[in-house]
């Protein structure tokens, strides 16, 4: 008996359909005759090699011209061809973009080295034997400053802050008075010469001196001559410092009248006689 077919299927089969011609693409083509022949020959070779008796061989000098591949190389070649075929047939449209998520970030070389040193230090500290320690006197190399130094430093800090925060707009123009004038160049030069002389005198080595006979070239004057010279200097100073305005007019009185010329001539004549 013929099998019954559902009426719905019959309607779909017998009904008219608007079909379109489509080109068929052969995705998995069958191998050609040459490929089959090569595969058979290759299998025969493998069987012959497996069934070959190595004891029948004789030692002769062989010249290697063409080296046949082994089974592992053949398998690798087949896998490589399959992989290339899969890559060539792969459709990029099937790919979907995804957001990469970094789960485990590997540390760099520096952090690894630091971590190793930390682990070594920790292990050394944990394994350290306290009984090996010895008591030693501690020396204070960097002592803390006293209270006065701390207060002075605070004052300096406050002064610096006030100077940095000071506004120049609050300043006023004032006439300056020179109380301590600076010395001129000549005075500074003289002072430098004096300092150099003092340093030379202080650094002078007396051992370098040699004894010599002294010769009196300019003898000192006696004390009487010195006193006379002092009186002369005082007299000259008095004359130079004398003020004519202090003089007063006075009447002169003739006490001893001088002789006349005639009297002098007569006296000379009498003296000659």
TrEMBL record:
Pfam families: Thymosin. Residues 252-273 are annotated as: Disordered. The keyword Lipid metabolism does not apply. One of its GO terms (biological process) is actin filament organization. Its main location: cytoplasm. GO terms for molecular function: actin monomer binding. Keywords: Cytoplasm, Cytoskeleton. Belongs to the thymosin beta family. This is Uncharacterized protein LOC111127650 isoform X3. It comes from Crassostrea virginica. The gene is LOC111127650.
């Amino acid at each position: 008996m013929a099998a019954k077919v559902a009426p719905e299927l019959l309607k779909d089969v017998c009904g008219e359909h608007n079909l379109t011609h489509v080109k068929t693409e052969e995705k998995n083509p069958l191998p050609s005759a040459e490929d089959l022949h090569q595969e058979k020959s290759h299998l025969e070779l493998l069987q012959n090699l497996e069934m070959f008796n190595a004891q029948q061989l004789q030692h002769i000098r062989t010249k290697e011209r063409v080296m046949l591949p082994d089974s592992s190389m053949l398998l690798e070649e087949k896998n490589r061809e399959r992989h290339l075929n899969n890559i060539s047939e792969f459709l990029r449209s099937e790919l979907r973009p995804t957001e990469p998520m970094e789960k485990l970030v590997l540390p760099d070389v520096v952090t690894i080295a630091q971590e190793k040193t930390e682990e070594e230090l920790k292990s050394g500290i944990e394994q350290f034997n306290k009984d090996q320690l010895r008591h030693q006197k501690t020396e204070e190399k960097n002592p803390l400053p006293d209270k006065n130094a701390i207060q002075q430093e605070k004052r300096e800090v406050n002064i610096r802050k006030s100077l940095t925060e000071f506004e120049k707009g609050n300043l006023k123009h004032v006439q300056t008075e020179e109380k301590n004038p600076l010395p001129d160049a000549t005075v500074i030069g003289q002072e430098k010469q004096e300092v150099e002389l003092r340093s030379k005198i202080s650094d002078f080595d007396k051992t370098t001196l040699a004894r010599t006979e002294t010769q009196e070239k300019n003898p000192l004057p006696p004390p009487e001559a010195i006193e006379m010279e002092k009186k002369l200097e005082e007299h000259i100073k008095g004359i130079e410092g004398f003020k004519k305005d202090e003089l007063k007019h006075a009447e002169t009185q003739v006490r001893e009248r001088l002789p006349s010329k005639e009297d002098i001539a007569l006296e000379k004549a009498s003296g000659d006689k």
